[in-house]
Design goal:
One of its GO terms (molecular function) is CoA-transferase activity. This is Glutaconate CoA-transferase. It is built from 20 helices and 26 strands. It is an alpha/beta fold. The protein folds into two domains: 247 residues, Glutaconate Coenzyme A-transferase, CATH 3.40.1080; 243 residues, Glutaconate Coenzyme A-transferase, CATH 3.40.1080.10. Strands 18-17-16-15-19-22-23-24-25-26 form a ten-stranded mixed β-sheet, with helices on both faces. Strands 1, 2, 4, 6, 10, 11, 12, 13 and 14 form a nine-stranded mixed β-sheet that branches. A hairpin with a 3-residue loop joins strand 16 and strand 17. Helix 6 packs across helix 16.
Length: 604
């Protein structure tokens, strides 16, 4: 019989945590081997969407199954960049997605995805971001369906997984419901894990945590670093996926590349930023199948493992990505000469005025109508939201808070990187959560008081938006979070450049319903709802043209019968400080177009 403890050391030993490896059940294995062990042809595979994106797992899936036509159904909030190889190498037969295309640094279609979808080589089931998360949650909780506020009044309501039912408690309301989504395997990339597979995730969490519980078999995880159990315990608040849901864990430094990963201080795992050069290479290669085939042979099929992929990137390049991740590193992008050059640009163009007017619209909704949450969509709408909240907080003392769909709350963007999910903005967050918190609660929950601002591929006079399908049936991008936002937010502002192709009388596909879209800002003017339809309330003056001539030009670029409001007035010029901040946000000129002529002093 063991002696009972008689001193403090014996007492401590009695209640000590078991040593690492005590249970002899390490799940650590090379990534390609993990896929061979746990993934079989015909499976439904989910790539979890969070700050840490499983890009290394996507490449490994292509390496393992290229040439085998495995017929996978791929589930993802967004398929982007190098993941086009999933369709060019015939890995995926069906996609369940909210977004397909490019999103860094600017959103846009990807020709290879479009070709695969339009030709019928790949079937696509369009979703929105929140509904995808809600379906995964239903699968995780074991519910037969999940209620949703999204999809009603849009083309997405035609999906077989969506229905409307009567409120069983007799309110007379119709409730949207969606079927559960149950992947066979979920791929997740985390910051760290112990050998048993307890995963420390990088916040914000997107839907990466809930999707781990939806998968029928479990999680194939990659992480930046394998750590000891005591590190896991010290960061238990970030362990969103416990070991019992994990099939395998593979150490894969830079496993999000070309995307970034954020690492909270104290964990000892280095963060890194997005690789702009890699994204530029992939976008250029995606212009033709031949160029992309060459890129895939070079960067996916031509390397034996993720370790070889990282070695091919090179130490200097990787060190530079890590060196730009600290919270104050953004200052290095704003050299004195750059600041002087941007400060010296005279005048502005219609695109810059559009963003400034959109920001003014956000400010007015917060200041005059008491909105407290500002949801930032992608693209130019994102820059407008940033500009508005910075002005409200810094100049007017109004605590409006920015949110972004994967789980950012209360952040204040820095100069130098306009990508909406840039990890250099994450240290400024007041909270980092997930998709269901931001889109389900802050934007559209019981207590939402949200003004959202989003981009629009096409829009009609009632505010309905299309970003999914052209009139001849060709694929565009999908919803992302747009349908969830316009379905649930208290109010929405839409932003788009104006042409008869964009402002249309009838949409071929309604991605996002327009009932809560009150304002439209274009590069020609501002429209506000009057009697349920947009009316022109502000116009952007054109050089050497009268008001009537300018309105005639706006009418010529509008695909519906233009209504001119009795409140019509000219837009005010932007303030120089707003233009400078806007250009500092977009320091590479990814979104804007401040030209060489205006840099030399030509003003509008």
């Amino acid at each position: 019989m063991n002696a009972l403890p008689t001193d403090r050391e014996a007492l401590r030993a009695m209640f000590a945590e078991p040593a690492d490896g005590r249970f002899g059940r390490s799940k650590v294995m090379p990534l390609d081997d993990a896929i061979r062990a746990h993934v079989e042809p015909g499976m439904l595979l989910h790539f979890a969407y969070s700050e840490g994106r499983p890009m290394a797992a996507s490449n490994a899936l292509v390496r393992v199954f290229a040439g085998r036509d495995p017929g996978f159904t791929i589930v993802s909030a967004g398929l982007v960049a190098n993941q086009a190889s999933l369709v060019t190498e015939r890995i995926a037969k069906r996609l369940i997605v909210s977004f397909v295309g490019e999103n860094y640094p600017t959103p846009g279609p990807n020709r290879l995805f479009q070709k695969a979808i339009d030709s019928g080589d790949v079937e696509v089931e369009n979703h929105s971001l929140l509904v995808l998360s809600q379906r995964l949650a239903a699968g995780a909780y074991g519910f037969p369906f999940a209620p949703t506020r999204s999809w009603g009044g849009s083309s997405l309501a035609d999906n077989e997984c969506y229905a409307e039912i009567d409120d069983p408690f007799g309110t007379g309301q119709k409730i949207g419901v969606v079927k559960p989504l149950i992947p066979d395997v979920t791929f997740v990339h985390g910051l760290a894990a112990d050998t048993e597979g307890n995963i420390i995730l990088s916040p914000p969490f997107g839907e990466g945590d809930i999707s781990a519980f939806a998968a029928s078999k479990g999680v194939v995880a990659t992480v930046e670093r394998i750590v000891s159990p005591d590190v896991v315990r010290r960061h238990a608040h970030l362990v969103k996926i416990p070991a019992y849901r994990v099939l395998s864990v593979s150490e894969a430094p830079f496993g999000c590349h070309p995307y970034a990963i954020y690492a909270p201080e104290g964990l000892g795992v280095p963060a890194y930023v997005e690789d702009f050069h890699a994204f530029a290479q992939i976008r250029a290669a995606s212009k033709t199948p031949e160029l992309f085939d060459e890129w895939v042979r070079d960067w996916i099929l031509g390397v034996d493992s993720h370790e070889d992929y990282v070695a091919k990137l090179g130490v200097d390049r990787l060190d530079a990505l890590r060196g730009r991740a600290p919270s104050d590193a953004w200052m290095d992008d704003v050299a004195p000469a750059t600041l002087k050059r941007l400060s010296g640009i005279e005048g502005y163009d219609s695109r810059e005025l559009m963003v400034v007017e959109a920001a003014r619209a956000v400010e007015a909704k917060v200041r005059d109508e008491g909105r407290t949450i500002v949801e930032a969509g992608v693209g130019l709408a994102n820059l407008a939201a940033w500009l508005a909240v910075a002005k409200l907080q810094h100049e007017e003392g109004i605590p409006a808070e920015l949110v972004a769909e994967i789980g950012l709350y209360g952040y204040l963007p820095k100069a130098g990187e306009p990508f909406i999910f840039s990890n250099r903005n994450l240290p400024t967050c007041k909270s980092m959560t997930g998709v269901e918190a931001v889109l389900g609660l802050y934007v559209s929950g019981r207590h939402n008081n949200c003004i959202a601002i989003i981009g629009a591929g096409q829009i009609d006079s009632a505010g309905n938006i299309n970003s999914t399908q052209t009139g001849d049936g060709r694929f565009l991008l999908g919803s992302g979070g747009a349908n969830d936002i316009t379905s649930g937010a208290a109010d929405t502002i839409a932003v788009t450049q104006q042409s008869r192709h964009r402002l249309v009388d009838t949409l071929p596909y309604v991605t996002s319903p327009g009932k809560n879209v009150s304002t439209l800002v274009t590069d020609l003017g501002v429209y506000e709802k009057e009697a349920g339809r947009f009316a022109l309330t502000r116009y952007f003056p054109l050089p050497d043209q009268s008001r009537d001539e300018t309105v005639a030009h706006i009418r010529s670029q509008c695909g519906w019968d233009l209504v001119v409001s009795e409140r019509l007035r000219a837009a005010e010029p932007p303030r120089r400080e707003d233009l400078l901040k806007l250009r500092l946000y977009d320091i590479r000129n990814d979104f804007l177009d401040y030209s060489a002529e205006r840099e030399q002093g030509a003003a509008r």
